[in-house]
Specification:
It is a single chain. By secondary structure, this protein is of the alpha/beta class. It is 37% helix and 15% strand. The strands form 4 sheets. A 6-stranded mixed beta sheet has the order 4-1-5-6-7-8, with helices on both faces. The protein has a 4-stranded parallel beta sheet with strand order 11-12-13-14, with helices on both faces. The radius of gyration is 21 Å and the shape is globular. The relative contact order is 0.11.
Length: 368
């Protein structure tokens, strides 16, 4: 399995495949993820065998040591995949497929879309709801005909081979910009959905990036690489979920976070972002802003996002809450995490959020 340090000698048209674990690579009784040293040779053999009839693109491997169940991924792990891709991109690679578990697939995809905004990278993230290999056949590694894994991988490889810039998630025969995707079913093959009306970061990707601009982008990333690693150790995103309780519960939950270093807080409101009003909650939101926290309002509804149409929701924006617009919860998490990692002050993070909202055309009102 070649390491990323050897990839500069390979054709840039080769798809760089990253295996990160998950259901896709599980096998046996009971099911457990196979080690990369076992799974990747088996997958390579299957790809070679099927390529004779399916005309799949050429594949190489990026050496990834981080293989775990996706429900266990942390911000440090997200940074690991960012750096793995960054190193390969710096060596001239442009087309990638990342196989990961479905639990946090949409979060990781949205984070990488934020991290590589403004580039010509083509990254497709996929996984499966059933393992690729048939555990009823223990004598040899055989593709499970009843699994969705092979089709998801094949479609992802073809999508990456097309080379369209951007980060996409491919699943169940469909693909969408990563920032729009969310998991909507816990075990059905059609587990994800998304849409194509995506603003930033999707609209920032460039079809063909001039060498000089690419180098400037890389120089900027390399300059803050150590800072990103350091900040990942304490970068936290919290969620506060509105329920039909007295508002004091929300203010108590928020107050408990105010002693922490500046972090991201997702306030999950009802409907279009409605949040129970109280004097204590308003004051807590004001203090959260003064402490450098970024509070973003999202909707508990899977579709539609938030608006300021109702007085029950619009009041919070007077206390520096940021409107999540039509962004999904994974996309809000991803943007908050990237801003915490990439920028060194609360003011710069808020400024960048405002810029991205203006770029995507999803602002519902000016955040005071």
């Amino acid at each position: 399995m070649p390491s990323s340090s050897t990839l500069s000698n390979r054709s840039s048209n080769t798809i760089q495949l990253i295996y990160a674990g998950g259901t896709f690579g599980s096998y046996g009784r009971p099911l457990a993820p196979l080690d990369a040293d076992i799974f990747l040779p088996a997958l390579q053999e299957l790809l070679t065998e099927h390529n004779q009839t399916n005309q799949l693109p050429e594949v190489s491997w990026l050496d990834n040591k981080l293989i775990k169940d996706s429900s266990q991924l942390t911000s440090n792990d997200f940074v690991h995949f960012y750096e793995l891709l960054l190193d390969a991109y710096a060596q001239g690679q442009r087309q990638f497929v990342l196989i990961t578990g479905t639990d946090t697939l949409s979060y990781l995809g949205a984070f990488l879309a934020e991290a590589f905004a403004g580039t010509d990278m083509c990254l497709v993230v996929t996984g499966s709801m059933r393992p690729l290999l048939d555990s009823d056949v223990l004598q040899t590694y055989t593709v499970d005909a009843n699994s969705d894994a092979w089709n998801n991988l094949s479609e992802s490889l073809r999508l990456a081979a097309a080379g369209e810039s951007g980060v996409k998630i491919s699943f169940g025969g469909e693909s969408w910009p990563a920032q729009t995707v969310q998991k909507i079913h816990s075990h059905d093959f059609m587990a994800f959905t998304g849409h194509t009306r995506a603003g930033y970061p999707n609209n920032s990707y460039i079809k063909q990036l001039p060498d000089t601009r690419r180098q400037h982008w890389l120089d900027d990333q390399i300059a803050v690489k150590n800072d990103i690693q350091t900040r990942a150790e304490q970068a936290n995103i919290h969620a506060i979920y509105c329920l039909p309780n007295i508002p004091d519960i929300l203010s108590t939950q928020l107050e408990a976070l105010l002693t922490q270093p500046p972090c991201g807080i997702i306030l999950l409101g009802f409907g279009a972002g409605n949040v129970p009003h109280s004097k204590d909650l308003a004051e807590a939101l004001q203090r959260a802003y003064e402490h450098g926290h970024m509070v973003v309002c999202a909707s508990q509804c899977p579709f539609g996002g938030v608006s300021d149409s109702y007085a029950a929701g619009s009041w919070q924006y007077d206390y520096h809450v940021i409107a999540g617009g039509r962004l999904t919860i994974p996309a809000i998490y991803a943007r908050l995490l990237w801003l915490l990692l990439r920028y060194d002050t609360p003011a710069r993070r808020r400024q960048r959020w405002t810029y991205t909202v203006n770029q995507s055309g999803t602002a519902i009102r000016k955040n005071r």
